[in-house]
Amino acid sequence: MFKAIASVLGVGHLKGGGTVAAAACCLGLYLARGRGPTTRPGPAGLLTAGLLALGTWAAQRVEPAWGKDSARVVIDEAAGMWVAMLCVPVTGPNLLAGLALFRFFDIAKPLGIRKMEDLPGGVGVMLDDVLAGVYSNALLRAGLKLSSR
């Protein structure tokens, strides 16, 4: 079960699995938009915390078999993308911008993101993507604020 969670039901076995997982997260958010807890700060925060805890557990469990931060583990990309879109209006343009920002930060790993990978086990696997999501979220929200003026 933990391998299925870590690989997001096998997505991690695909070429470009991290991008596929982040895009699948966008699709899920788009389909759920306006109908539930993803749009309200309290429930969205609880769902995000639950996803991060589940991802950390699963990444920790697969590490002995798959190695440290295996490319097959993509739950971190899904969680990071969720963080990127946390409390941001879920629209097509916002999702595309969030996905582009998140993948940039996740791949380039600037501003201390790479340092998070040094943390042990599942925590290190998840936190670099969480920080990439935080930076993406901050830029996305700043852009939305500036564009509404």
How would you sum up the major sheet? none
Give the terminus-to-terminus CA distance: 48 Å
Helix content percent band: over 70%
Work out the helix count. 7
Shape, per Cα inertia axes: globular
User: Spans with pLDDT under 50 lasting ≥5 residues?
Assistant: none
H/E topology pattern: HHHHHHH
Structural class: mainly alpha
Question: How confident overall, as mean pLDDT?
Answer: 91
- Into which percentage range does the β-strand content fall? under 5%
Q: How many extended strands?
A: 0
Total tally of structural domains: 1
Radius of gyration: 15 Å
GO molecular function: phosphatidylglycerophosphatase activity
InterPro entries: PgpA, PgpA-like_sf, YutG/PgpA
Protein name: Phosphatidylglycerophosphatase A
Transmembrane segments: 12-32, 44-62, 82-105
Supply database-style keywords.
globular; 149 residues; mainly alpha; single chain; 7 helices
Q: How would you summarize this macromolecular structure in one to three sentences?
A:
The protein is mostly helical and 149 residues long.
Structure, explained:
It holds the Pfam family PgpA. Its EC number is 3.1.3.27. This is Phosphatidylglycerophosphatase A. The chain crosses the membrane at residues 12-32, 44-62, 82-105. The chain has helices spanning 2-6, 17-32, 41-66, 75-85, 92-108, 113-116, 121-147. The protein contains seven helices and no strands. Helix content is 71%, strand content 0%. It has 149 residues and is an all-alpha fold.
Secondary structure topology:
Blueprint: H1 2-6, H2 17-32, H3 41-66, H4 75-85, H5 92-108, H6 113-116, H7 121-147
Helix pairs in contact: 2-4, 2-5, 3-4, 3-7, 4-5, 4-7, 5-7
EC number: 3.1.3.27
Keywords: Hydrolase, Membrane, Transmembrane, Transmembrane helix
GO molecular function: phosphatidylglycerophosphatase activity
